[in-house]
Specification:
about 425 residues; alpha/beta; seven-stranded mixed β-sheet; four-stranded mixed β-sheet; disordered N terminus
């Protein structure tokens, strides 16, 4: 009977009022928790500058477009898997277009384990690289690589991958008679039967470099003109495919410590740092792309940063990379966003907003970061002093850049440049 008197002394609206007060104070907290969860679960990783369209969590049901996008392959995300049959899958070191510094076996590397891995995207397979189809699709055309020596790494790889589809070796040659050992200017490999050239332009900054203007400070040996693209750019227009890369020279070691400072509007800027200078140079590249390229006919790619793997010191202080014999797994390699990738991505995004999806980010960073086993390391070309630094920036060929070109091929297939 005690229960009834207890109930009698309560106001008939007291319970709902308490519930309303609790709900009133709890609702903002619940909404904040829900929104925070959505942001965290959908935040792209540093290496997912083009995040997959597959939503892990959503407040709303996916649209038809999102469901279609979720089924598309995200080639950039995956793991390296062992494949014994993958060694020398496309070519070997006998390819005459390989720089001596990239021929790791010839230079003393005894193992070939670094060749027995292939890239496997998580939710799909890469299309098999078909040299004959790419050559035929590029007939009477040009494929251009413009950038630093990592761009040369990829260029040599593609030339050798394509050369295996040509039965007559004499039908492939440097168009101007230059040796492959030439490291300044540009090289153009001609595939005679296809009237096709695969070209490489050495432009580490993409923009122009010049002598110091009159009346510059005494410590200025030269300048990097962030508002003027290199004059080689006149030769890039009209190419069927153009692959750019940059970033490895945009640091103090390659600029101010060597007496090179940044110039803009004819004036030397002694305080501009390399990151800001790189951003401004990308704006120059962006304007040139929109002004001088026909984005209806040219397929333009900007390749992301290729990580170096110096352990136990920097490149000039005893850094090494000759310890690893196999790729690192996704979980063992710490992810750190390369400094310049977001700047490249932002410049491409600005072009896309006005021109549609005509310029593409070739994202090789994450897959490449796992491959510390693939560098020449101490296996330098003949004549290199024994005390020289290890090369933990470039890549053995055959090797990792072959996979970059598999990804390039997959993009060209998806954009119907190559018909499968």
């Amino acid at each position: 009977m005690g229960f009834i008197p207890f109930m009698d002394h309560l106001h008939p609206l007291s319970i709902p009022s308490k519930v309303e007060r609790v709900f009133k104070y709890a609702l903002p907290f619940l909404l904040l928790l829900l929104v925070s969860s959505y942001i965290v679960l959908n935040r792209p990783s540093p290496f997912e500058l083009y995040p997959s369209s597959f939503l892990r969590f959503s407040l709303f049901p996916p649209t038809d477009a999102e469901q279609v996008a979720a089924r598309e392959c995200d080639y950039w995300r995956g793991n390296w898997v062992r494949d014994e049959g993958n060694a020398y899958g496309y070519y070997n070191e006998s390819c005459p277009f390989l720089d001596p510094g990239f021929r790791c076996h010839e230079n003393g590397r005894g193992d070939d384990d670094y060749l027995k891995w292939r890239w496997q995207p998580y939710r799909c397979d890469l299309p098999r690289f078909n040299a004959s189809k790419l050559l035929e699709s590029s007939r009477n055309g040009r494929i251009v690589f413009a950038g630093d020596s990592l761009g040369r790494n990829q260029w040599e790889s593609l030339v050798c991958m394509l050369s295996r589809a040509v039965s007559d070796p004499s039908a492939i040659y440097e168009a101007n008679g230059n040796p492959i050992t030439k490291h300044k200017g540009y090289l153009s490999i001609r595939f005679r039967d296809y009237n096709l050239t695969i070209e490489y332009y050495r432009v580490p900054f993409l923009v122009a470099t010049a002598r110091a203007p009159p009346n510059s400070p005494a410590n200025v040996r030269g300048t990097i003109r962030v508002d003027e693209l290199h004059w080689f750019s006149r030769m890039w227009a009209g190419a069927n495919v153009i692959v750019f890369n940059a970033g490895h020279w945009w640091n103090q070691d390659k600029t101010s410590k060597m007496g090179f400072y940044f110039e803009e509007n004819g004036a030397v800027n002694m305080t501009m740092d390399s990151t800001e200078a790189f951003r401004r140079s990308l704006q120059t590249w962006k304007l040139w792309t929109k002004r001088d390229l026909d984005l209806e006919t040219s397929h333009v790619f900007f390749r992301s940063y290729s990580p170096a793997h110096y352990s136990h010191g920097s490149w000039d202080k005893g850094g090494q990379c000759n310890i690893s014999k196999e790729p690192q797994s996704d979980s063992t390699r710490p992810r750190s966003e390369p400094l310049y990738n977001p700047l490249i991505h932002e410049a491409i995004k600005e072009i896309e907003e006005r021109n549609g999806s005509k310029v593409h980010f070739l994202n090789i960073t994450r897959m490449t970061e796992l491959r510390s086993d693939g560098h020449p390391s101490s296996h330098r070309e003949a004549g290199t002093p024994p005390t020289a630094a290890q090369d933990c920036s470039h890549w053995c060929l055959p090797g990792v850049p072959d996979t970059w070109n598999e990804l390039l091929y997959a993009q060209l297939v998806s954009r119907r440049y190559v018909r499968e």
